[in-house]
Each structure stands twice: as structure tokens, then as C-alpha cells.
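Box 3.1 A note on notation
Throughout this textbook, protein chains are presented in two layers. The first layer is the amino acid sequence; the second is a C-alpha cell string describing backbone geometry. Keep the layers aligned when reading.
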Amino acid sequence: MTKTIIINLLKIFVALGIIVAGVMGYIWLKSTEEDISIEKVEETSFFVETNSIQIGNYNPTNTSFGSIFSSRQANLTFPVFGEVLNISDKFKSGEFVKKDTVLAELDNFNQLNNLNDLRIQLSLNNSQIEEIKSEIVTDKLQLQELSNQLDIREKQKARIKSMVNSKASSDSALDEILLAVSIAKSNILSRKQNVNRLNFKIEQLNLSNKRLEVSIKKVKRSIADTILKAPFDGSLGNVNIALGENVSNQKIVASLSNLNFLEVSFNVPSQIFANFQNIIGQEVSVYWEQGSDEVSMLKGYISRRDAYVNPQDGGGKIFAILPKPSSDFSKIPPGAFVKVNYPIGSLLQVAKLPEEAIYEGDSIFTIREGRALKKKVQIAHKEPGFVYLRGAINNGEQVVVSRLAGIGEGIRLESKK
């Protein structure tokens, strides 16, 4: 029993010794520690470039690419088949020609022979008509004589009838005169019938002449078709013809572009295409460039849009009329690939800022009381280097327009002076 008590007391003394040793060690460590001074770290402030928001109405432009073409362009062909007999010195690609300039001719030997043959037939018909008319005149004179003879026979018949009634003449004499009257009437009828027949013959020949005249016009047209002329003033291109070559109406020997009807076509986004009425009649600038160098520039005016929408992006094609050239060539020729600056219409109550002001595609950072404030915006339009936007923004607010990695709401910002 006494032994157990002694063991328990020893355990208590050991535990108390450990506790006392720990407390003494802590007091010793605390009394020997070094004094550490805590310095307050100042918050970093970032210097950024800013722009002041100015809300207003703008008429921005956009850039597209297109090509120059003539809305009055003809593919030149010969309407008839034939061998090329002559080619004009002006019939060359790039040459400017006036309307009705003879460009080339085909051999028209067969057409000329056909024309001469038809003219001979026409002359023969006219000769026959004159002959028949002369015969009709003769027949009419004979009719007059036959009518006079009939009148005489009628008078003789009346006298003989009177004499027969008075028994002064015989019945045979009356029969003879009646036969003579009948023969005279028959001769008159025969002659009238011949005159009518001759008149019908003239009508037939006249109809034949009309048919010949139609054929003559066709042959003359065929002869004219052997001569290729410029249908209007313009510039030649793609000339492909040679002396002695047999050409048909299926072969295109050249193209002719009317430089007074030059236009430029270019594609625009769906939003602009749908609101085409806002830009019709507006001015565009057309640039013909070689690399980064400007070769030539023209002003034009938007005239119309295409009837169809581009199924890939929903936009469409716009056409602008270019000015008529002052000389025989245009400053930008047909077929040139050009850059077009065109208006997109009016943007009302928007702010114009450098494109660097946009973060995360739809946000900007303003500075309020020295700290960044993030705001959501709606981009109304983009152009090279600038954006037009709307949103919860106010005139005079300072917007961050420099790129700052790690920018976030609440960080301290200072505007560069």
C-alpha cells in the first residue's frame, strides 16, 4: 500500500517537473527574443493612358475589297459564218474605238452573188409587168372597138327587125344579124376576161417582187453582218482573230467595255446590307494599290445592292457608280482588284475610343477615385484602330486605353500626364 502511494507521488512530481521546466523554458526564450519592427507596405499604383469619353453622333466608314467592271460590256461575234478577209489595225486588245469603227470583215462573195441574182429576178418580174400592162392597154382599146362594133350590130338588128315586120326583109337576114350581135358580145367577154387574167398576173408578179425585196433585205443584212463594227465607244479586250480564219457566230472574237458605265462591286456585312437605304447615294473612295503603294484613286456613289444574300456570312454585294473618264481610258481599268472605303450610316449617341480600350471583348475600365471600375459595353461598330460603343458610360469619364496585364476592378490607377 505504502509502495503504491510512493509510486503515484513520484508520477505527480515528474509531471509537475516537466510543466515547470516548460514554463521556465518559455520565460527564458521570451526574455531573450529579438525585437522585430513591422513595416507597413504601401499599395502599388499603375500609370495608364486614358481618354475622356465624348458621346456624340458619328458617320464612320468601313473597308472592303472588290473589283471594277463595266455594266455595259459586249462580247463581239460575227452573226454569220465566213472567212476573215480583213482586220483593222485598231482591232487590238486595249485599243479604244469609237462607235461604228470597222474592226474586221469576212469574205462576202457568196452574199453578193445572191444579191445580184435576186436583183436580176426582180428586174425580170418588172419587165414582165410592163409587158402585161402594155397588153392590157391594147386589149382595152380593142374592147372599145368591139363595143363600137356591137353598137352598130344592135342598130342593124333593130332595122332588120322593123323590115321583117313590114315584110321588107327575110327571116334569114334577121338570123344573120342576131348571130353577128352574139359573136360581138362573145368577143367583148373574151377580151374582158383576158384583161382580168392579165391584172391577176400583175398582182402575182407584184407579190413575187415583195418576196424578192424581203430576200434582198435579208441578203443585204447578211452582207452587213460580214462587217464587224464597234456598237459603242469603248475599250477592246480579249481580241482573238486571224486572217483566213473561218469563224462562226459561236466564236467570241473580242470584248468591248463601255468606260462610261464603270462600277465597283464589294461585299458588306449583313447589318449594313439589311439597312442599305441608310447608305444609298453616299460617297465611296476606291483605291487601286500595288502592295502598300497607291496607284490611283476614284470617288464613286452607292447606287444599288444585289438581290441575293451571301449564304456564308449573311452579308451581300453593294454596287457603286464611278465617274465617266475624261479621256479614252479610265484611271482604274475594268478588272482591277480595289480597296473600297464606304460609309456604314449614322451612329447616334455613341463614344469613339481606341480599340485598346476594349477588354475581354465587351468591357472597358474607367477610373473613379483613383481605382479601376469595370463596365460592360455594346460595340456598335469597329474600324481600323477604333471602336464605337454604347453602355452605362458618361461624358467626361476617363477610360483606360492602354493594355495592362492583370488589370482588375479596384486596383489603383493613375493617368499619365
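The longest strand covers residues 293-309. The chain has a mean pLDDT of 86.
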